[in-house]
């Protein structure tokens, strides 16, 4: 949700700032802007819409200077116009912000009463004025920031430039991520290590409440009480190459096709293939003593959690509560002392999930986190960190992170079942054998890419699409619907197939394609009965099943998509592929912006 970057450099920064924004555009693409400090002036260039528009502006009107800040925006307060684009500036100060200043209205009224005028509708601009007031009154930039930060409520990562001080920038964070990058005679600020990947791999992660002064020779970090502190400098594993599109047309397509590799990579950290056992990281709590699990996540990660609920309950017989993070705290959940709370997130920065995590921590829960960014806030606040190794996921629609989450969750469920005595060693070996088959099965599913591309035109004209599944395929139906709506803008819903007859079946007519996920197995016949209820009412069905299922129930369907025959445990991983590919090809057929769909952002760091 918004990406920010700052460079105190030895040479011109404008191109490098834009390059950093390019790698953060997945965080938002409503507008972009840069501001450099040059010849005693703040040189600001902004443009609404995609970064390409800012690049055009800079072509005709460059921003010279060796120090600067930049921003790519996901709009919260104020429309995505140029005047609302960051950096926001006064005569003395320019700043970029990721987060929301919740008390901005009160601050704005106060500033207006003191005669300050505003040029945007944003919450951010008040911060520029508050800092500016202090500087204009003769305080040093550091003192100005020190005075203003305690006045801000909400979440922020800030990078601030000062007209009269061309040698340093000030950054601050609370609730939104901010890193410091250390280069050769240069220092950087960024929303994440990805933004700084070509500049440096030497990264320090600021902690909640930290603020920092960065200069060419390094950074001075202060904690929330203004005490100087050291934050460990780590070498980031993110390389610039890992975020290239390669020969693929879209990041999403590349990420779908990476799944066999990254799932194998992830599994290799959680299983011992020779012994055929699960290997989890060391934990300093009694997993066998866990009596209840609370799973909290958002979007696709939530659907991974829904699949995991089946596994935890079936294998380990441990009851699971699952909530979308945005609702979790507000229902005042009953959290018994000693419970395990499990958070699932690609980014590890999703504000709703992070707030739920902190709520659970305050209420005595042990915190387990399945996360793709090992340096994220969630990862750092976990008691048990279970990283996925999907690599950077750039496409806004989550794909490879999902299947990697499922791989980790299956291993965790099996291990929990083992330590609880619900699974024998032989049964554990059997589960591990099935998990080992997953990468090959994903490859076999991907082999149907062309068939799926060829049938996308059947779905592309639809206004509404329904997805049906039963058991662990029900969350997959919801995931399929989410993928389709977010990148093709077709209204889609996922239902438990047995629930159709309780209402949604009224929607069925020839214009509403129904995608049925039904691997053969114990639930197959029941799902097929629900599918026939749809067909009896003129519904057009696309059946996704294996050869056996298609042989049995494929006749008369609008289309069928054949998946390899797999064990039910890995079916959710495998069936993720056709729903991802279907959404992808429908979006391509419709010509929408696959990697940067409208109104969305990759990392949702506001509540
Ligand atoms: O980074 P997270 O996994 O916490 O993100 C959660 C959701 O915002 C995310 O899954 C979102 O729904 C994706 N756009 C789905 O494709």
TrEMBL record:
CDD domains assigned: GFAT (cd00714), SIS_GlmS_GlmD_1 (cd05008), SIS_GlmS_GlmD_2 (cd05009)
Keyword Kinase appears in the UniProt entry: no
Record domain Glutamine amidotransferase type-2: where: 2-217
GO biological process: amino sugar biosynthetic process; carbohydrate metabolic process; fructose 6-phosphate metabolic process; protein N-linked glycosylation; UDP-N-acetylglucosamine metabolic process
GO molecular function: carbohydrate derivative binding; glutamine-fructose-6-phosphate transaminase (isomerizing) activity
Pfam families named in the record: GATase_6, SIS
Class of the enzyme per the UniProt entry, highest EC level: transferase
Keywords: Aminotransferase, Cytoplasm, Glutamine amidotransferase, Repeat, Transferase
Any GO CC annotation of this UniProt entry: cytosol
Catalytic reactions of this protein: D-fructose 6-phosphate + L-glutamine = D-glucosamine 6-phosphate + L-glutamate
Active-site residues annotated for this sequence: 2, 602
Subcellular location, record wording: Cytoplasm
UniProt-listed Enzyme Commission number(s): 2.6.1.16
Residue span(s) of domain SIS: 283-422, 455-597
Self-association state and partner proteins as the record states: Homodimer.
NCBIfam families: glmS, PRK00331.1
Record's protein name: Glutamine--fructose-6-phosphate aminotransferase [isomerizing]
Annotated source species: Sphingorhabdus profundilacus
């Amino acid at each position: 949700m918004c990406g920010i970057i700052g460079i105190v450099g030895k040479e011109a920064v404008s191109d490098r700032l834009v390059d950093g924004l390019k790698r953060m555009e997945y965080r938002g693409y409503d507008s972009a802007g840069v501001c450099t400090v040059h010849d005693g002036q703040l040189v600001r260039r902004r443009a609404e819409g995609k970064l390409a528009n800012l690049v055009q502006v800079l072509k005709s009107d460059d921003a010279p200077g060796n120090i600067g800040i930049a921003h790519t925006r996901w709009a919260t307060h104020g429309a995505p116009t140029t005047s609302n684009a960051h950096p926001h500036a006064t005569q003395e100060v320019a700043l970029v912000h990721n987060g929301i200043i919740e008390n901005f209205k009160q601050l704005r009224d106060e500033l207006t009463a003191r005669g300050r005028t505003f040029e945007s509708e944003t919450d951010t601009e008040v911060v520029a004025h508050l800092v500016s007031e202090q500087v204009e009154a003769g305080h040093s930039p550091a003192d100005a920031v020190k005075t203003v930060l305690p006045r801000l409520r909400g979440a922020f990562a800030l990078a601030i430039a000062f007209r009269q001080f061309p040698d340093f920038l000030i950054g601050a964070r609370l609730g939104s991520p901010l890193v410091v990058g250390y280069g050769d005679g240069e220092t950087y600020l960024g929303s994440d290590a990805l933004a700084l990947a070509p500049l440096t791999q030497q990264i320090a992660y600021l902690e909640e409440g930290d603020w920092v002064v960065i200069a060419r020779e390094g950074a001075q970090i202060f904690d929330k009480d203004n005490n100087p502190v050291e934050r460990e400098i780590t070498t980031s594993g993110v390389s610039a190459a890992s975020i290239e599109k390669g020969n693929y047309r879209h990041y999403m397509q590349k990420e779908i096709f990476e799944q066999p590799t990254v799932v194998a990579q992830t599994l290799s950290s959680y299983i011992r293939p020779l012994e055929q056992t699960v290997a989890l990281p060391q934990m300093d709590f009694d997993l066998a003593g866990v009596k209840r699990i609370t799973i909290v996540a958002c979007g696709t990660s939530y659907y991974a959690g829904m699949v995991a609920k089946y596994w935890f309950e079936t294998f380990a017989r441990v009851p699971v509560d699952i909530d979308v993070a945005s609702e979790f705290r507000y229902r005042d959940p009953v959290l018994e002392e000693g419970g395990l709370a499990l958070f699932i997130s690609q980014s590890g920065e999703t504000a709703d999930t992070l707030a739920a995590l902190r709520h659970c921590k305050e209420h005595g829960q042990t915190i387990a986190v399945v996360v793709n960014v090992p340096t994220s806030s969630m990862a750092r606040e976990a008691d048990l960190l279970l990283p996925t190794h999907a690599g950077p996921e750039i496409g806004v629609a989550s794909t490879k992170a999902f299947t990697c989450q499922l791989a980790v969750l299956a291993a965790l469920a099996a291990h929990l079942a083992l330590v609880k005595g619900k699974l024998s060693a032989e049964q554990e070996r059997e589960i591990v054998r099935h998990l080992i088959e997953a990468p090959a099965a994903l490859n076999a599913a991907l082999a149907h890419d062309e068939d799926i591309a060829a049938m996308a035109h059947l779905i592309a004209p639809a206004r509404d699409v329904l997805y049906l599944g039963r058991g662990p395929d029900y969350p997959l139906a919801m995931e399929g619907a989410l993928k389709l709506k977010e990148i093709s803008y077709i209204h889609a819903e996922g239902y438990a197939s047995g629930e159709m007859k309780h209402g949604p079946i009224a929607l069925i007519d020839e214009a509403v394609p129904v995608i049925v996920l039904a691997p053969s197995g114990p639930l197959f016949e029941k799902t097929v009965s629900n599918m026939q209820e749809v067909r009896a009412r003129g519904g057009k069905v696309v059946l996704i099943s294996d050869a056996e299922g298609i042989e049995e129930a494929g006749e008369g369907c609008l289309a069928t998509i054949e998946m390899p025959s797999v064990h039910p445990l890995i079916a959710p991983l495998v069936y993720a592929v056709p729903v991802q590919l279907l959404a992808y090809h429908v979006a391509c057929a419709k010509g929408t912006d696959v990697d940067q769909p409208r109104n969305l952002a990759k990392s949702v760091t506001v509540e």
